[in-house]
Write a structure and sequence with these properties.
- The chain is α+β, with helices and mostly antiparallel strands.
- The chain contains eleven helices and 13 strands.
- The chain has an eight-stranded mixed β-sheet with strand order 3-2-6-7-11-12-1-13, with helices on both faces.
- β9 and β10 form a beta hairpin.
- It is globular and about 45 Å long.
């Protein structure tokens, strides 16, 4: 896709974020975090991400949250309050519409449609938009020339969620995925790796684990050239790195990401594991997390390679 009237070039964008500096992109530090809010901490989905977005809204640092990774149609899923963020945790995954825009990176066309439709309906009432999404969605928001596509609106914060592969919930392979999961694949709410298996969670909270060898042919075709697992173009990217609950790993990438995460911890919204477990070996914890994340990059590449 070549749309210079609304998208900046990779030549301009990539040097700012340096996604190729390591398998995980450029980042400043890694933290193991949990939410201090019981509703997020024991709920389904991305609990640290939800809490950080709640902090942005409560401190008037953003007017609205665009939950790009949870939108399934042309209308965007938006959160204006803490309750909206709670409710959004049970929205199913949807298919994406992405095209190569250069260097193997992928812009998500559905995300652009949703953003445009929201701006038209909103008419400038909520101009500062925080976006939560997977790699192709955050990359699209970074690449977008906002003042041309949605004049008056701006990207206030980019929060990424680790991408374990977008499993198409409909189409010719839906029955195979249904058989493997034991529930309707359109009800998939979350996917993560646990050991050598992928764990799927439904909107009802049902969990099923399936070996990756059974899933290689079920990945959305639009994801097959995407190299990004940890959302390199985000301000902060977060996600689970195994079965340990309720902690998640956060990679801090930018000045605004560093500032907001520090404030959210200081103000009691989030807690690092070092605060909750006195004497925790933070260096060893970081080493294990980095080892896991780098392994996930290799696994994602292998999973998509098998499909090709």
């Amino acid at each position: 896709m070549n749309a210079p009237e609304i998208l900046r070039s990779d030549g301009e964008l990539v040097p700012l974020h340096r996604p190729f500096d390591s398998p995980l992109g450029t980042y400043r530090r890694l933290l193991s975090l949990t939410s201090r809010d019981r509703g997020f901490r024991f709920g389904i989905g991305d609990n640290v991400a939800g809490t950080l977005l709640w902090y942005l809204l409560s401190e008037d640092l953003a007017d609205v949250v665009f939950l790009a990774h949870q939108s399934t149609g042309d209308e965007a899923t938006m959160a204006f309050t803490k309750d909206d963020l709670y409710d959004a945790a049970r929205i199913r995954m949807g298919a994406s519409r992405a095209l190569v825009t250069g260097g193997g990176l992928r812009a998500n066309l559905l995300t652009l449609t949703q953003l445009r439709n929201f701006a038209r309906a909103d008419r400038g009432l909520h101009p500062r938009i925080a976006v939560m999404g997977r790699p192709c969605q955050i990359y699209t928001m970074r690449k977008l020339l906002w003042d041309r596509f949605v004049p008056g609106y701006e990207l206030a914060f980019a929060l990424g969620t680790f991408c374990y592969g977008n499993f198409a919930p409909a189409g010719t392979r839906a029955q195979r995925l249904r058989d493997l999961l034991g529930f309707d694949p359109t009800h998939i709410r979350d996917v993560r790796y646990v050991g050598e298996e992928l764990e799927f969670t439904s909107v009802q909270g049902v969990k099923r684990r399936v070996g990756q060898e059974h899933l290689a042919g079920l990945v959305n075709a639009n994801c097959l050239q995407c190299y990004d697992f940890s959302v390199s173009f985000s301000d902060v990217s977060v996600g689970h790195i195994g079965a340990e609950e309720p902690f998640e790993v956060a990679l801090v990438r930018t000045d605004i990401g560093e500032t907001l995460l520090n404030q959210a911890i200081h103000n009691g919204f989030l807690a690092p594991s070092s605060q909750l477990y006195e004497g925790a070996d933070i260096v060893e914890e970081e080493r294990r997390a980095l080892s896991f994340l780098n392994a996930m990059v290799d696994i994602k590449r292998e999973l998509t390679r098998r499909v090709r």
